[in-house]
């Protein structure tokens, strides 16, 4: 089940991030020891115009999260930065692709026109999701990082239908 997250999901979001091994933590945060998991979980679960998060639940367990945060100020942000994490146990089942597809559709509905992300070049899993969604042309390499700068007008509707 995929649904928007809210403040009641704070602990589930925190537990998901605490379950990540060192490698997955590094891929997500660019560090092995993030010191801000409680604050991050709270921020992900905020429901306001500048934040949005979706969670994928498998048998009641939060298996993945895709969220965005506005990069500009206003009632309807035009540009957001997004992040994705899927528990290792649930990878390779399309959860990441589904979450990003639905996050993109929700972003459009909320007036977002651009989505950005910073991805480590060695993060093959997330880069595969981006290729699967047809977003490869929006990727640009800068040393050890890939920058995704996605203009939602360039994203075909089937990629955001949320299937």
- Shape label: globular
Number of strands: 7
| Cα-based radius of gyration, to the nearest Å | 15 Å
Question: What low-confidence regions span 5 or more consecutive residues with pLDDT below 50?
Answer: 158-163
Would you tell me the overall average pLDDT? 84
Report helical residue fraction. Answer: 25-40%
Largest sheet, described in full? Answer: 7 strands, mixed
Kindly name the structural category.
alpha+beta
Number of helices: 6
Features:
single chain, disordered C terminus, alpha+beta, 163 residues, 29% strand, 7 strands, globular
Describe it:
With 163 residues, this protein is of the alpha+beta class. 33% of the residues lie in helices and 29% in strands. The protein is built from 6 helices and 7 strands. It has a 7-stranded mixed beta sheet with strand order 1-2-3-4-5-7-6, with helices on both faces. Helix 1 (10-19) crosses helix 3. The radius of gyration is 15 Å and the shape is globular.
């Amino acid at each position: 089940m995929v649904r928007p997250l809210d403040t009641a999901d704070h602990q589930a979001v925190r537990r998901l991030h605490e379950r990540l091994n060192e490698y997955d933590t590094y891929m997500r945060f660019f560090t092995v020891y993030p010191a801000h998991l409680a604050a991050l979980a709270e921020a992900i679960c905020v429901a306001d115009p500048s934040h949005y998060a979706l969670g994928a639940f498998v048998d009641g367990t939060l298996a993945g999260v895709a969220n965005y945060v506005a990069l500009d100020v206003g009632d309807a942000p035009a540009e957001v930065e997004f992040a994705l994490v899927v528990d290792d146990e649930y990878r390779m089942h399309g959860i990441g692709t589904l979450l990003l597809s639905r996050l993109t559709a929700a972003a459009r509905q909320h007036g977002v026109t651009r989505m950005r992300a910073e991805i480590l070049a060695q993060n093959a899993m997330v880069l595969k999701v981006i290729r699967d969604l047809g977003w490869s042309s929006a990727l640009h390499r800068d040393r050890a990082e890939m920058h995704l700068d996605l203009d939602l007008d360039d994203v075909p509707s089937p990629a955001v239908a949320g299937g």
